[in-house]
Design brief:
By secondary structure, the chain is α/β, with parallel strands linked by helices. The protein has 10 helices and 13 strands. The chain has helices at residues 5-11, 15-33, 49-63, 67-70, 93-104, 131-137, 238-250, 290-308, 326-329, 337-343, and strands at 36-42, 74-79, 110-115, 141-144, 157-159, 171-173, 181-186, 188-192, 196-198, 254-266, 277-278, 283-287, 355-361.
């Protein structure tokens, strides 16, 4: 709002009572503009179905609940289902089951997962169901977006206009633009071998036709090797491309981001000699500001990992181009994409300006 508090009072056009009411509205707008995150902990073991459900239910209810959001709507959920070999690289079965159950309790028209994935729905972990089994049991279906090389794949996507720089051709899953569709983001909190960190922002890549285009100069051309697309020539553009795609096309379509931080992952595909594992957090984060959630999650990962090995993980908003950390050494972007996203107005990166509400869930 362009009118300051003092100017508003000095004008006096609405009288004392009217000014008080109007100022209350101004304050309310300011409060509403402040991003909010709900973090729920407790409720049971980090790797238990019951704990995951209790935490998520409490966080969603504290944030405002689902009934009015999903009742009678088609619900699409973007999970991590990328790696078929490593179950802990994907959204956990416990968290996925919890979200599907909570959504189903609110009478949606239908529920589907959506994404251009790589068979991670079949990844196994001893004693636990696969994501495919969880999705089927939860009464949902899987909608696998076609790869760009599949004949006719463009029919499943919408060309975003105007094309945000530095994209030449950004095509996004057309289903997420339907008015009767509610899109939910459900990533797993984890590290990344080529850009340090991944959660809410990076989870949009699987909603685009040319997902390798995020680290190519010209995404309309093929990658040098589909077997190792990380060798692409445009990693220096990754941060700008991700920010542009999120802010200009996909981000506004998300109704809510729900971060699986029950057992955050580290070391998926490295970097270097680092091997995949998990740390215990027993938490779920809920909010609408993806960048704020990512900065919060990245900070939590740093706290957990640096307890085990000091200096292993960089600061969430620090310089990710220099340092002794393996994550820095193997960061192909040579930038901090969270900082770039903040500079480009994707969301709020300063957590002092975020209303972080902690919820402790009884066991």
């Amino acid at each position: 709002m362009d009118v300051s508090r003092r100017e508003f009072i000095q004008r006096g056009a609405v009288g004392v009572a009217g000014a008080a009411v109007a100022l209350s509205a101004v304050d309310g707008l300011a409060a509403a503009a402040r991003p909010r995150i709900v973090v729920a902990r407790g409720g049971g073991a980090a790797d238990s179905d019951e704990g995951a459900y209790k935490r998520m239910k409490a966080a969603i209810e504290r944030f405002g609940g689902f009934p009015e959001l999903v009742k009678g709507k088609r619900v699409l959920i973007k999970m991590n289902m990328t790696d078929g070999g490593f179950r802990d690289a994907n959204t956990s079965s416990q968290s996925a089951a919890a979200l599907l159950k909570i959504v189903s309790e609110c009478s949606p028209k239908s529920v589907s997962t959506i994404g251009q994935e790589w068979y991670g729905w079949n990844a196994k972990r001893q004693g636990l169901p696969t994501l495919a089994e969880v999705i089927k049991t939860g009464g949902a279906t899987m909608y696998q977006l076609p790869h760009y090389w599949a004949p006719g794949s463009e029919a499943a996507y919408k060309l975003v206009q105007p094309q945000p720089e530095p994209w030449k051709e950004l095509m996004v899953a057309k289903d997420i633009f339907d008015d009767d569709t509610v899109l939910l983001n459900h990533p797993r909190l984890k590290t990344h071998p080529h850009c340090v960190f991944t959660s809410c922002l990076k989870n949009i890549i699987g909603l685009t036709r040319r997902m390798y285009g995020f680290h190519k100069i010209d995404e309309t051309t093929d990658v040098a090797s589909r077997g190792d697309p990380a060798t692409s020539d445009g990693w220096h553009l990754f941060a700008q491309k991700l920010a542009a795609a999120f802010k200009g096309a996909i981000g506004p379509r998300f109704a809510l981001h729900i971060v699986d931080a029950n057992e955050p992952n580290f070391g998926w595909r490295g970097p270097g000699k680092l091997r995949i594992g998990t740390v215990t957090a027993g938490a779920v984060f809920v909010g609408k500001d993806a960048l704020a959630l990512d900065v919060y999650g990245c900070r939590l990962l740093g706290e957990l990992l640096n307890k085990q090995q000091p200096g292993l993980y960089p600061e969430p908003l620090g310089d990710w181009s220099t340092g002794a950390s393996e994550f820095i050494a193997f960061n192909k972007t040579k930038t901090n994409y969270l900082k770039v996203a903040a500079d480009l107005g994707v969301g709020e990166a300063d957590l002092s300006k975020v209303d972080i509400q902690e919820v402790t869930v009884p066991a």
